[in-house]
């Protein structure tokens, strides 16, 4: 990637973030992390309290990248075929025809994903990991890009089903929108609502880039961002130490290390670099690893959290300082 391509890629990333920020009032770092996950060809789980804009943010982002979007409201009676689709028999010609489900899209919004039973949640496992679905023995590839943005409410227990660890591990990042940081942001939300004259402005948002351009950015992350061996060693130490922490029963898997690498490379491109630095890794470590570690029961009862453990791990691992090698 030459300097001109790198600068154009950075500008495209900024355009996407700016377009989302036209309607979403919040931390721009959150928008960068969401973009990094999508550029790394990963999926995102938003877990936060009701009314904090999780669903709106997902809709705005999908519009900004110019992709096709479909939304599934997860409910206890939702069936796997409601997501994947099914073969329908047509009496007119005596053949079966595939009726595609909402999973055949670029951005799938899985709203309140923990309200569906495990059987239905499992329908997404193949799609999220292998970008394909199998219906009645026939395997069909999904389009590119394919990103799942899921939301869930952490405080509601009645009528919900915890996500299995295998599915949590398939989310590249777990994020939270959070409350507005100050009075000014709170006022901005109200003022924009008056300006929009509607609760959901996502339909009016113009794409910031064409979908083909977004796929190019994903390819840049995969092939055009250099990762030095010292960064690989840094990521490896963090992942391995997450397994050795005394509060951890099950640490991050090798897939967690790969996810950290991919997210760091995407973050480098967003910041206009074609090489990864330690800050790219540190910026996403809690979001990548916290939901992948399982704590001991006694430590969980004492109030320990995955986020806290990962922060401790990050503080213990020395940060690489040989920047000359990284920028080669």
Explain what the structure shows:
This protein is an alpha/beta fold. It has two domains: 1-77 and 106-132 and 141-198, Rossmann fold (3-Layer(aba) Sandwich), CATH 3.40.50.300; 223-318, Magnesium chelatase subunit I, C-Terminal domain (Helicase, Ruva Protein, domain 3), CATH 1.10.8.80. It has helices at residues 3-21, 28-39, 54-64, 80-84, 118-121, 125-130, 165-168, 183-196, 211-223, 229-244, 254-270, 278-289, 297-301, 306-316, 323-326; strands at residues 44-47, 69-73, 85-90, 95-100, 107-111, 132-135, 138-141, 147-152, 173-175, 248-250, 294-295. The strands form four sheets. Strands 2-5-8-1-9 form a five-stranded parallel sheet. Strands 3-4 form a two-stranded antiparallel sheet. It has a two-stranded antiparallel ribbon with strand order 6-7. Helix 10 crosses helix 11 (254-270) and helix 12 packs antiparallel against helix 14 (306-316).
């Amino acid at each position: 990637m030459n300097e001109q391509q790198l600068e154009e890629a950075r500008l495209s990333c900024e355009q996407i973030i700016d377009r989302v920020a036209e309607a979403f009032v919040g931390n721009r770092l959150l928008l960068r992390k969401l973009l990094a996950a999508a550029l790394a060809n990963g999926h995102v789980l938003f877990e936060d309290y009701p009314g904090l804009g999780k669903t709106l943010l997902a809709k705005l982002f999908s519009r900004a990248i110019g992709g096709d979007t479909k939304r599934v409201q997860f409910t206890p009676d939702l069936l796997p075929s409601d997501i994947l689709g099914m073969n329908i028999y047509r009496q007119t010609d005596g053949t079966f025809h595939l009726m595609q489900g909402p999973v055949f899209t670029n951005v799938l919004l899985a709203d309140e994903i923990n309200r569906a039973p495990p059987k239905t949640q499992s329908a997404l496992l193949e799609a999220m990991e292998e970008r394909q679905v199998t219906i009645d023995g026939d395997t069909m590839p999904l389009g590119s890009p394919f990103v799942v943005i899921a939301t869930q409410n952490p405080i509601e227990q009645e009528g919900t089903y915890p996500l299995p660890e295998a599915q949590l591990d398939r989310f590249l990042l777990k994020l939270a929108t959070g409350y507005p940081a100050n009075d000014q942001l709170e006022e901005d939300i109200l003022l924009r609502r008056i300006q929009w004259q509607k609760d959901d402005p996502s339909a009016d948002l113009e794409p910031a880039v064409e979908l083909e351009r977004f796929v190019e950015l994903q390819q840049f992350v995969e092939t055009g961002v250099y990762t030095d061996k010292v960064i690989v060693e840094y990521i490896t130490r963090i992942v391995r130490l997450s397994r050795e922490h005394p509060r951890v029963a099950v640490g991050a898997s090798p897939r967690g290390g790969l996810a950290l690498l991919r997210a760091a490379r995407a973050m480098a491109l967003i910041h206009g670099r074609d090489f990864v630095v330690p800050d790219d890794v540190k910026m996403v470590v809690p979001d990548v690893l916290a939901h992948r570690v399982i704590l001991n029961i006694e430590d969980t009862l004492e109030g320990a959290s995955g986020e806290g453990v990962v922060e401790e791990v990050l503080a213990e691992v020395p940060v690489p300082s040989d920047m000359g090698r990284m920028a080669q």
